[in-house]
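Researcher: Next entry: ATP synthase subunit b, chloroplastic (Trachelomonas grandis).
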Amino acid sequence: MFICEKFGINGNIFETNILNLSVVLGVLVYYGRIVFSDIINSYKLTIMKKLQEAENRFLETENSLLIARKNFEIAKQKADEIRNQSMVLSKQTYKSLLENIDNEVKLLNLTNATIIKSEEEKSINEICQNLTNVALEISIEKLKSKRLNSRKQKKIISRKISKLMSKKIIYR
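Model: Predicted structure:
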């Protein structure tokens, strides 16, 4: 007989050794319970540790979220303040620019008026000078045609000049 033939399932309860089986089962249950208890406790500790870590991360994340919300509100308030300040500053700058433009326009108008008045005075002086020269030339021609001596000529010229001075036609 071969060894392989000795192995197999025997369905007869009386032929099998119930005592041996119960002892083997008892030993398995007793030692298996300790091993399984250790494994289950190890899993329990691992799960508890992971739960505690997850809870700590959740609390940290919640705190970070609160801080981020506070920072967001502060940033939002600062942005509003900056926006308001920029509006006020832009209005002030706009007013200042308008005032500067008005001042520049007034200054330009005053300068233009001064230049025009100066040019008018210059033109009047030039015309008076030309009229004086023409009158002098005409007088000289008349005197030459009348053949007056130099003394009489000086006397007539002096009289005419003093007459013109009294009327304020000649400007000095």
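Model: Note for the record: The longest helix spans residues 18-146.
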